[in-house]
Amino acid sequence: MTTSKTPARGTIASRADRHALYERAVQDTERDVRFFARSYRKLRGHEPMTLREDFCGTAALCLSWVKSHAERTAIGVDLSQDTMDWGIRNRILPAGGDYVDRISLVHGDVREVRRPKVDIVCAQNFSYYCFKTRAELVEYFRAARAGLQRDGVFFLDLLGGTEVMMEGITDNDLGEFTYRWEQARFNIVNHDFVCHIHFLFPDGSRILRAFTYDWRLWTMPEIRELLLEAGFSDVHFYWEKTDAEGEGMGVFYEPDHVDNQEIWWTYVAAER
Ligand SMILES: C[S@@+](CC[C@H](N)C(=O)[O-])C[C@H]1O[C@@H](n2cnc3c(N)ncnc32)[C@H](O)[C@@H]1O
């Protein structure tokens, strides 16, 4: 008997799925879950069980959260029903178990969801940069605080560095494809910046502008001040220790002083 493999049709780009590529290139939700749970335990002395993922997209973090403990539950909030549906179809249902019963996805604006109250609200990958004025950002931070239990913690992340304020391209070769981050525009007057994510494949095909972000680059002191203005009692910035090659070691500390770098990101925790 002979078998013949049907050659794949079209380019790699035409067969690729931009959500799957995004998850692989950008997210590390297991690391986020480990960090949130550990930091919460340190701050509060008990185990966090309920989490709300704002700007959840495919709800990858919700899924990692409920997988990390048999009794944990998660709520995801996003404006895009299509993206959440993709997550249910391609990730949550195929994962099996009772995960689908422990995740609720809410189609709505993150500034409008208050209930049920949770131990942790999180906003990852700088999604809250879509709020470009202090008034809008404080309104969102107030909503995140209102959604927390009395001893809840709000986790977000922050991006910065000299390169973030310049036009330019960073390529990351991930084997099956290259993840390209493009800083297309930066306006020093108001810190508006526009970025694109592109995916490039070994056969020369590409998905250009798979995702585009029109953001304001917020700074560390602004984020601290606006979280406090929104009512949070304390704000922590967690910096990752790096090895001799500059690679992150998964160990975080709270610095008093850090010299600027070309590009950096950090976790932030705000105590309700
Ligand atoms: C950069 S993606 C984040 C995906 C993923 N959660 C992550 O951490 O990488 C931003 C998501 O935020 C959603 N979004 C933007 N503004 C929103 C808002 N005001 N309320 C809820 N979701 C919003 C978009 O639909 C999109 O899915």
Q: What features would you describe in this structure?
A:
This protein has 272 residues and is α/β, with parallel strands linked by helices. It has 2 domains: 14-159 and 219-271, Vaccinia Virus protein VP39 (Rossmann fold), CATH 3.40.50.150; 163-214, no CATH class. It is built from 7 helices and 12 strands. The chain has helices at 12-15, 18-26, 29-44, 60-67, 81-95, 134-146, 220-229, and strands at residues 50-54, 73-78, 103-107, 118-123, 148-160, 168-173, 178-186, 192-200, 206-216, 234-242, 248-253, 264-271. It has an 8-stranded mixed β-sheet. A 4-stranded antiparallel β-sheet has the order 6-7-8-9. Strand 2, helix 5 (81-95) and strand 3 (103-107) form a beta-alpha-beta unit. Helix 3 (29-44) packs across helix 4. The longest helix is centred in the first third of the chain and has 16 residues, at 29-44. It is globular, with a radius of gyration of 20 Å. The N and C termini lie far apart (67 Å). The mean pLDDT is 95. Residues 26-27, 55-57, 77-80, 83, 109-110, 124-125, 127, 130 line the site of S-adenosylmethionine.
Task: Give the gist of this structure.
It is built from seven helices and twelve strands. It has 272 residues and is α/β, with parallel strands linked by helices. The longest helix has 16 residues, at 29-44.
